[in-house]
Each structure stands twice: as structure tokens, then as C-alpha cells.
Model the fold of this input.
Amino acid sequence: MDFSERVVNLVPEGAYHMLAKAQALEAAGKNIIHLEIGQPDEPTFPNIAQAGMRAIEEGYTRYTPSAGIKALRQAIAQDAGNRRGLSLTSEQVVIGPGAKPFLFFPTLALVRPGDEVIFPDPGFPTYQAMVEVAEGTPIPVPLREEQDFSFDLQAFDQLVSPRTRLVILNSPSNPTGGVMPLAVLQHIAESAIRHNFWVLSDEIYSRLIYETPAPSVATLPGMAERTIICDGFSKTYAMTGWRLGYGIMPHALAERVELLLTHSIGCTASFTQIAGLEAIQGQQESVEEVVKTYRIRRDVIVKGLNQLPGVHCRMPQGAFYVFPNVSDLGLSSNALAEYILEKAGVALLPGTSFGHNGEGYLRLCFANSLDNISEALRRLQSALNKL
Ligand code: PLP
Done:
């Protein structure tokens, strides 16, 4: 079949691919510990789930404006603004089904064929996909372990060109858990102003931080008018299946993104939006509790991984991923991930699911019980000893 250039190079997300493989093994009777998919193991917090169910009973089952219910846009403007020290209006907030639309649609609205888009490698695979669909030119910039997986600024400076239209940042990062320091953001912001490009800041893990807050590039001088913040409810409030996220951007761009939503998804489920209102305005202790739990699990998994032969793992500062270096083990990341799934019954991802620079690494999600994490470490120890 003949497909358009926009879709011929698209490939599945590694996490879904590995999940399908692991599930096939489970169906054949094998016990699998799932550390591949990046989502909270907790159910949605009860106050939010109940608000969603009440909303259905109260008739929130019809279309809403494409950009979302006004009350939720206002609540997000206030909450997301306060958390970052930004003064926002509700017209700058657009709501959609998940955070992903606020990667895809601003890219479609801004990137013209041939425009260059710089994004992190290793990084979330949607970045490359959406640039290809927009017919832009993907320009990966390496993240270096020795710089705690922040941008390699020397490489970045060389990659910026008059054709650079958009730079994508993701802090805290999937897959590395790295947080970009303020000085690095300042360097990128100065470059954005000098070279006149936009920045798309994927801040979906902004609430899952363990040491210090992750600064937002949007707060830096001159950046509010050239930054899109992508954030959402999936990770913070354990709402991955509800599909609720938002973008924060200058008003004129928000209007264009709203039109893309109108003509693609129409609007976001109205009861999901009401549940989102409760998520923001209700108690926040559950988020704080979950972050404490993740911190304990992070410490256990990092310590355990560092005790395995040939494995070195940095301490992630945010999100719920570890990205251990396994290059001393003598197998490609992909072969190692397959071996671990088959031999140890632990599903995890090769670093190459996140780009070429992920070679030599694995990604494990630690949003899982301490029992499962400890058992996974035991199984890894035994499988790696047999290599
Ligand atoms: N951005 C990053 C870095 C992610 O890891 C994810 C989900 O895994 C998303 C965006 C998408 O979030 P959502 O499920 O709300 O669309």
C-alpha cells in the first residue's frame, strides 16, 4: 500500500511493544514483573474517581467547548501558574485528552516542512514521530550520563541553525529521570531569543520530584511568549486512562491549537474534566504521599541495580524511571532486554526505545510495589550471573 510521507516512518512506542510480548508470555503461563510501562501502580485517588462518577450521574456526558470547560481552564491557569511563578490567563490554557495532544498539536501548528526541531536523545519517542508527521526535520541532541542526562550544550550550540524552529525539553525526563538545572535552561533560553525559535517544555513529571523542584524555562526573561508548556493529570494523579492533559501557550497559538482539537478530537470527555477539577482543587496529600513512596522505591532500586555485576545507575532526580548503564555486559540493549524478559521474567525497555543514544542503557519504571522491585532485582541478579 502507498502511504503518505507523514506516516511511513512511524514505529510503535517501545513500551507498548514490550508490554504485548510480556503479555504473550503471561498467557503461556510465565510469571512476569512489569517494569516496562510508565504509569503509576496506584488506582486514581478516590476523591477524583468519585467526582468523575458523580459527574456522569449529574449529566456531564455531552460535548464541551474544544478548549475545555471554562472552570477547569481557570483552575489550571491559577494552579499551574502558582506552582511555577507565572501569571496566566485561562485563554492560555487548552485542555485535551492527555498531555500528548500538547506535544503533537503545537508542533503541527508551528513547524513547516523542512523546519528543524531539536529534541532530547534519549527522549520520549513521540517527539520524533510528531516532527515527522509535521514534515519537519528531526534533530536529536544527546543527553550525557556524565552531565546527569542534561542537554549536551556544546552539541546543542552546534545543532542550532537558522532553520531551528522548535526545541523540545523534558524535565524531569523520561527515560532518564534527569532534571535540567537552571543554568542549562538559561543557556537554551538565551539561544531561543537570539535565534528566534520556540521551546516546547514537556513538564508532565513536574510534580514527581525528589530533591529540588524542576525549574520551568517559561519563567525565564522573554520566554513566556515563545514557550509551550505541556502538562497533565496522568502521572501526578494516577489518571493515565482518563485521558486529561493541557497545554499552556500564548493566546494566539492557543486559538490555533483549539482549532486543531475541534477538527480532530472535538473535545475532551466532560466527566473527565470535572474529575480534573477535583484533582486540582481537592486534597493534595495523596500526591505528596505517592512522591514519598516513589522516593523509597527509587532508593531501593538504584541501590539494588548498582550491586549487580557490570551495572551502574545514577540517582534520578524526578519522574519514576531509572536508566542504568549496562554497556559493560557485552550485549546490545535490545538483546539484553529480550534476554531479561525470557530468562528472568522481568519486562523492561532497551534504552534504544528512546533513540540511538539510549544504546548501552535499560529503562525500568519503579512505580511498582517494593515486593515486586525486590523480586525483580533478585531475578536480574540470577539472570545476569548466567550471562
Ligand atoms: N510526555 C512524556 C515525557 C511522557 O512520558 C508521557 C507518557 O508516558 C507523556 C508525555 C504523555 O502523557 P499522557 O498519557 O497524559 O498523554
Q: What stands out?
A: The longest strand covers residues 137-144. The chain has a mean pLDDT of 97.
